[in-house]
Amino acid sequence: MRIDFVEIRNFRRLAKIRIDLSDKTTLFVGANNSGKTTAITVLRYFLTHQKAFSAYDIPLDLWLRIEELGRAFEEDQEGELPYSWHDLLPSLDVWLTVSEDEIHHVAHLIPTLDWTPDQGVGVRLQLEPKDPDELLQSYLITKTAVCDTLSAKTDSTDDGKSGKAETDDKDKSDKTCNGFSLWPENLMDYLKKRIAGSLTVNAYLLDPSKKTGPKNGVAQPQKLPDTAEPLDDNPFKGLIRIDEVPAHRGLSDYSGGGDEELQEQGDRGRKQLLTSQLRTYYGKHLDPLKAPEPSDIKALEAMHEAQTAFDERLKACFKDPFFELEGLGYPGVANPRLTISTNIKPVEGLNHQSAVQYDLTPDQDTAKYRLPEQCNGLGYQNLISMVFRLISYRDGWMKVGKAAREEEDGTHQASPPPLHLVLMEEPEAHLHVQVQQVFIRKAYEVLRNHKALKDNTVLSTQLVVSTHSSHIAHEVDFANMRYFRRHPARKSGQTPCSTVVNLSEVFGEPDDTARFVSRYLQATHADLFFADGAIIVEGAAERMLIPHFIRNHYPALHSCYITLLEVGGSHAHRLKPFIEHLGLNTLIITDIDAVEKETRSKATPKIGSDLITSNNVLKSWHPKREGFDGLVALTEDGKELSYDDFFSIRVAYQTPLKVKIGGKNVDACPSTFEDALVFENIDHFRKATGGGLIKKFKKAIEDNDDIDSLQESLLAALSKGSKAQFALDMLFSQDPASINVPTYIHDGLKWIEERLLKRQQEVALPKKEQADEAAGE
């Protein structure tokens, strides 16, 4: 048994999303504020903390509808309400995959007699009013009382008309509730304070025959019939064990306070320390006082002897004080005498700050050089704490040690729940890169490291992790990632939302393209999953110099989170389906790659020479043209391919430009990044110092007075030189701020800068509004 997928509706920016869960580890990735943590939160709220909901978990654009629902009820208590509560409040649909030999586990969730295991079972957890009529009536009573109070205040100061009430209730409401008002102003305002007492989570069975997939990334949760009745009990009780590792684990550096200071802080102050985790684990699984076994007898006898000896010692120590009390007439003849008896519990031996220590001299039999856990590095504290949590969750699920003989909720459960779901937020906190990678590789193994789980297919474990770390993403299989894609609000007043891309479905059946992209991203650029935009370049020179162009000439772009990918040769077009699924604004900086039409051999670019391009991006992605003349004549707008208001890709390649050579301005058609850089920095290279290609370029400029021979000399030098070495020499010998950015790259960088700044607005304006806004500027 496992969770196949969940569908989330109406929770913060998650309007309608579907998240498919992998059999083992599922990784949530995406840019900041895309909904990764929100998805973990909604799972936690619905599955374990159902009292934690607040009014701010409801999307802001639904607040207006709730307010409208309240006004409709104020005007007509018997009328039909404009919205259903189910359409306004958060819900979570959980769909389980079960096999034929697991049907007995889900017998209470089977919806119809003709159900078959291949359909799966679905349960909706819906936040809704405990009693809709009672909620609205309670709101109306509270609102009416507030309006009456304000009305009385208004009448008492209304030109001597003190105490005179308005006869029309609607006019009274308008008069007293406009402007200054008391709580509640409307139904949404009422829920902000009363949501805990007014709403509850109920469970409903779903119909597998009505299960449909997402459309354009938007989930299509089924509508419950009007006759649907909530289940009487928790549908997942005894079916799923749920544990979580939160992002804020409460670890901190050692403060220097002693045991007394820690004791004053109480359990809350120390509950996240490894000491506390060990104490909890010991009490649950190891304490010899709980359900003693033969192996515990020796320890219990030792405790008894210690307790007896300690009691005797205490009696001897307190003999004189007690004798002195008796001399004062107490306890007296008819009163019992005082005595002292201790109660030694093993778990109390772990109830101090230094219960867990780090031994600095493990090879020596001494406790002289040991430090408390707070003195170790924060990263290792975090790592040990997380791993031990996972061990504790696994052993709690499998009822290791004493837990096997404990009763839960007053009844003994013979076997563990068949599914263990573990939610983990941002495990990368405080961890070094290498430790992050090792941890995510081993986390699932830790959760399954029990003899009863090794080859057991009946008991399943699913680990769900949200992360901001490209290093963690680097270690997880491409098919196990779920990318959270941000979408802007379509108009003012709406809430920006997100959709989820199942990366295992991006390419369909595995092929050369899918293998290339997954291997390439895992080998180089997992940070693409967390970027706001991407720049794809062909060569090493562009990869090294363009970041310096951005830093020195494009400050707004420099403040954006972009990732630069070098995809050499003819492979950049293979990223097309991946980029389109991510919806990531992307600039592709490439070479025009002019070749002879007949022989396909490289040619010096020249208009009117019947040349074509060999560049696969330009031929198969955008602008899907092959002729050289047509490409160089393409307008700037024609180089952009727009998918929607907030997602476009643009190609940037060499185009004709004016070059001053031999005292004249002549037309030039560069064909590479390097000769374009030289053409736009002729004077710079004339005075340049350095070896390698810089020296050859300088000589070519000195030796050639016409543009054709100059370009041939530049290309000849490039064919024998190292472009990467050229970029390094440029950085070493020249100030990047003094270099003119090639025009085709400048135009591309300005384009992606504008796109990312527009994306920050998170509101998609209609075309007319965009035009009006531009005109206003």
Automatic annotation (TrEMBL):
Signal peptide coordinates: none
CDD domains found in the cross-reference section: TOPRIM_OLD (cd01026)
Domain of life: Bacteria
Coiled coil: none
Gene3D superfamilies listed in its UniProt record: P-loop containing nucleotide triphosphate hydrolases
Pfam families (alphabetical): AAA_15, OLD-like_TOPRIM
Location of the Endonuclease GajA/Old nuclease/RecF-like AAA domain: 1-473
Region (Disordered): 152-178, 207-233, 248-268
Domain OLD protein-like TOPRIM: residue ranges: 529-593
PANTHER family referenced in this protein's UniProt entry, alphabetically: ATP/GTP PHOSPHATASE, EXCINUCLEASE ATPASE SUBUNIT
UniProt protein name: Uncharacterized protein
Organism: Desulfosarcina ovata subsp. ovata
Lineage: Bacteria, Pseudomonadati, Thermodesulfobacteriota, Desulfobacteria, Desulfobacterales
